[in-house]
Amino acid sequence: IISMSRESALRATLRLPDDLSLRVISVPPSGDCLYDCIHALLKIKNDVSAASNYVPSKSPLIAGLKVKSTDDSSTTITPQEMRDHVADQLSSEQFDLYKMFASANVEDYAWMSLPKSPQSLEELKQFARISGKDAGAGKCLWADEFALSTISDGLRITLL
After folding, report:
1. What would the pLDDT profile of 101-143 be if each residue is shown by its tens digit?
2. Secondary structure letter of residue 88 according to DSSP
3. Are 32 and 79 in contact (CB under 8 A)?
């Protein structure tokens, strides 16, 4: 039996060179775990920004928030600010897509068929702002492909 660490397994799966830095970060399930994970990633990037081409404060999302930073390599963006950004980007097309997925019985969108589900774009935006840490993991909007692409575009990072 060969035992591999998570880092080694990921490195082998992604065929990454041994000299490329790779860490696995554990983030507790909270309903905000994607945002918490990205927040943790940005904190790590701040620690190594001198060796990186990525400057978080130059991303459109952080620049748009006018986040106070002490220099060009630091950021104080919070998981809630990311969640709010995703909510702000929701459109009527995205709302209609969620309704269509729910009516087609796509399991991950069953929340749109519940009695207290959002009935309008504004209600969807309000629901999207609810933190899992505050309301409970099952009572908030979990990150999906829309959230991933919105945060990825806003921070100018690649999320796999």
Report:
1. 999 999 999 999 999 999 999 999 999 999 999 998 888 999 9
2. H
3. yes
